[in-house]
Specification:
Blueprint (H helix, E strand, L loop, with lengths): L3 H9 L22 H13 L17 H6 L3 H4 L6 E4 L4 E8 L5 E4 L2 E2 L7 E5 L2 E5 L7 E4 L13 E2 L3 H8 L13 E2 L6 H4 L11 E2 L1 H4 L1 H16 L4 H21 L10
Parallel strand pairs: 4-5
Antiparallel strand pairs: 1-2, 1-8, 2-3, 3-7, 5-6, 9-10
Helix pairs in contact: 8-9
């Protein structure tokens, strides 16, 4: 809003000396003059105010329209609902929760869980997954450039689980029951964490967090066949060796060291 003295002179058309000292182009001709006209008049008047009077010079307008679109990073415009964002400096994971009709992106910052609890993100081998079913995470607007705490970096969109394991978990399995890539599917409360992998004790199964959930299910099928099928000793040895080779090959794909010993 204009100061009272300026409002009186400009809007009502009164003259007290200001109007005589202003260029004709800067004098508003109606109460509906544009904001640009008023800003120019305010700036001009401020030059003639006594020393010590606060400056009325307006700030530069924020970019809009095509200018704003041109300044938008490519990673932002390509986001989709469910896209996972990883910020390397803060090691933070965010997920795109929704994109409104104005292309505004809203994200949530879920916590990690080992077994995909609702509203959390999980690591399975080379995949990072987010379980949104019945999630109650608070969302926030993600604006380009980034939010204040993430302004210094661009996120990695849909990062590999291999990268997350190395940078977030220091190249260690975040599941406490995993011992070097293998775990006992009958111990340690596995039925409450990975119920679909449960077996009897006495065998060691490929960890789903290290190798991926699908690979762990495949490994379970090998172990069940060896445990329940009536194979010959030669077939048992062949299937066992084939299974161990598959685990070592999978670990090589994920950048993990081979199992030290299968004995």
């Amino acid at each position: 809003m204009l100061p009272q003295i300026l409002r009186r002179n400009y809007v009502r058309g009164e003259t007290t000396g200001f109007k005589d000292r202003l260029p004709e182009s800067s004098i508003p001709h109606s109460p509906l003059s544009t904001p640009t006209d008023i800003s120019h008049s305010m700036s001009t008047v401020a030059q003639d105010t006594p020393t010590g009077t606060p400056s009325l010079t307006p700030s530069a307008p924020a970019p809009t329209g095509e200018a704003l679109k041109a300044n938008t990073p490519a990673w932002y415009t390509n986001l989709e609902k469910g896209s996972i964002l990883y910020f390397p400096t803060t090691r933070a994971i965010s997920v795109v929760n929704r994109i409104d009709e104005n292309s505004n992106v809203y994200i949530v910052k879920p916590q990690y869980s080992v077994n995909s609890e609702p509203g959390t993100w999980s690591l399975y081998g080379d995949k990072v997954v987010y379980e949104s079913y019945m999630a109650t995470n608070i969302e926030s607007l993600l604006t380009p450039p980034h939010r204040e705490e993430e302004r210094e970096e661009e996120p990695i969109v849909n990062p590999s689980g291999i990268l997350i394991r190395k940078q977030v978990f220091n190249d260690q399995c975040p599941w406490g029951n995993c011992g070097g890539g293998l775990f006992c599917p009958g111990c340690g409360g596995v039925s409450r964490v990975f119920d679909y992998l449960r077996m009897s004790c006495g065998v060691l199964m490929a960890c789903p967090v290290c190798h991926g959930a699908e690979f762990a299910e495949q490994d379970k099928r090998y172990l069940r066949d060896l445990e329940y099928e009536n194979y010959s000793k030669e077939d048992d040895a062949r299937i066992w060796r084939q299974r161990c080779d598959l685990v070592d090959k999978r670990r090589e794909q994920l950048g993990l060291p081979p199992i030290p010993s299968w004995d």
